[in-house]
Amino acid sequence: MQQVVIAVRKRDSEAVITALQDAGVLHLRPITGGPLSTGSLAGQDAQSRRDDERLLARAESTIAELGAYRPAPAPLPAQGEWEGVVEGAAQPVSALARTRQELQADLDAEAAYGDAVRALARLSGGLDRSRRLTLVPFLLQPTDNLGELEGALRAALPDRYALATETVGQNRVGLVAALRSDRDAVRAALSRVRLGELRLPGRFDGLPLSEAAAELDRIRQNGAERQRQLGEQRDQLARTHGPALYAVRDALKDRVAVHDVRAVSARGKYSLAMQGYLPADRVPALQAALGQFGDAVSYELHGVDEHHDQAIPVQLKNNSYVRPFQVVMGLMSLPKYGTFDPTWVIALFFPLFFGIIIADIGYGLLFLLFGLWLLGKARRNEGWDLSFFGAYVPPATLRDLGFVTNVMAAWSILWGFLTGEFFGTLGEHLHLFYVNPDLVNSLWGWTGIHAESHEAATNVHTAAAAHGGLIPTVFPRLETSYFSNVALVFALLFGILQVLWGWGIRIQQGLKHRDATHTWEGLALFGGVFALICMAFATRAGQDFGQFTNFTNPLILLMYVGFALFLIGWIRVIRHFPLLPIELLSQGGAVVSYARIFAVGLVSAILAKLCSDLGWSLAERIGFLGILLGIVVGALLHFFVLALTLIGHIVQPLRLHMVEFLNPTGFNAETSPAYNPLRRLSPAANAVSGQGK
């Protein structure tokens, strides 16, 4: 990354900034302090900015009311026509928006009050038009007592009222008729029994009940068609005004960006200075953009100081396999410039951990279908409208998500073959997979486990039949009676690798930046965690502490070397990290946290097994009908279990990377802004020249 400082005459500043927009390589950094003016614009510049922002806001709100996606590019009108283009679209669009809003309010009122108002109109019998009588409608809940209301009315208006009710849905509506002079007394009687007068919303309030019912009937009959017609009008307005409106909106954003650049620059009476960053491979583009101005622009380039400058932007550069996983990195902060970019580690281990947890061919195929569906939408340049979440996923993001999902699916299918799981134990029921104790013993016997047949040793024929199938299982994690410890230690090995690796990165970064404190901190905790691991293996997880004096065991020697390195490192940094021994215990727990891979995966496998076993047992017990019932029940249960546990299957591998692996590297302690260069939105050919201004 290179840092650049640019000085330009004020009268040429708009042309230079426009050229920088065309180049699209300069990440600007605000200039603060100094003898020149910085910060908010003043005078004519401020007024010009306000005018452009006002017109931009008008264009943005009109586009939002149109509700249309970006149309095909259109020529940009002349600058003098921009306000006419925006206002020519804004006025009919605003009027249509008000009409649609009023219609929607009417539809909502009909849905909420229509049945009740029609019932009240029938109860009124034409009395709602009387000049002498008043009608007070009310709503009764199922728990309300009509007798209490009658008692309150008799007490307030003896023989001077009429009461009628009708059931509407689960509730009842009622009507009290009385003299107009007694209206307040009727309301008071309703209030005493915790009831209130039913008031209609908006323009329906105050209408006679018969008129309100007739109007709501008209809305019910014609509302949907009217709504469709208004939608067609909006689409027509979008087709008519959308292309030019988007073109003007983009040009206005470019003009506002020019004002923003001036605001973050240092300004004198006749000059303007700006500073920023750009990658070294984009320096030629900057030189080409500024070279056209000759001596009117002066600039200086130099390398950044990554040790002290806190504002250097970061641009992640990865190969074609790793790049899609940057969408996963979007859940985390960017790394500090000049430090470790973990994207490739996440690209390697995140789908692997997910695959170990799922480890099911059937589930993997479902993820593969979902990933192909995402890629299909991306190839058709379609986004994914998640309106119920208030989000829209663009095609480029769908392409990355589809790729990541397919990699996760591939690992799930591969591990499904190793664990012998196809929708749980469905593969075993179909004799696609089977557990061969002899094969398991030959592969894993060195760990101390011993797999035995589930059948009696004397019944050789039955045992052979029980362990027959097409593909033998080589990682039988469902065989918890003897294989759980192997699967657990296998998961912990990833913790040993990543936690030590994380502290190794801390050491490397400390040496790179000549930071003795972080270097010795890394050395201390690398040695301490390594010593704890050696101690765990040497003492068989604390079962034989007598090994501490067994110096013929190389693990014991390595343990003491690790603890010695920890003590030396702690002494060197004790002033900065006095509680480092507590942190050592925490890091030991970080290694154990990788047992989540085993635990979450085993729970997933057991739930899938239960779903398949239940469906299979129905098929075996009931016959043909049981087969159909078993398929339906099993499929529904699998879908429910997968939907219920999927978030955890994704979050757990992410957490292991974000916390256990990245905390030791210092990744979560520091960050840098994303490289966000100044770019033009409107086509360069349509740019409004500002030369000579």
Automatic annotation (TrEMBL):
Listed transmembrane segments: 344-375, 482-501, 522-539, 551-571, 591-610, 622-648
Any Pfam family the entry gives: V_ATPase_I
Origin: domain of life: Bacteria
Topology term for the membrane: Multi-pass membrane protein
The keyword Plastid belongs to this UniProt entry's keyword annotation: no
Domain V-type ATP synthase subunit I N-terminal: 112-200
Keywords: Ion transport, Membrane, Transmembrane, Transmembrane helix, Transport
UniProt key word Transport: yes
Subcellular location: Membrane
Family: Belongs to the V-ATPase 116 kDa subunit family.
PANTHER family to which the protein is assigned, alphabetical: V-TYPE PROTON ATPASE SUBUNIT A, VACUOLAR PROTON ATPASES
Name the UniProt record assigns to this protein: V-type ATP synthase subunit I N-terminal domain-containing protein
Lineage summary: Bacteria, Thermotogati, Deinococcota, Deinococci, Deinococcales
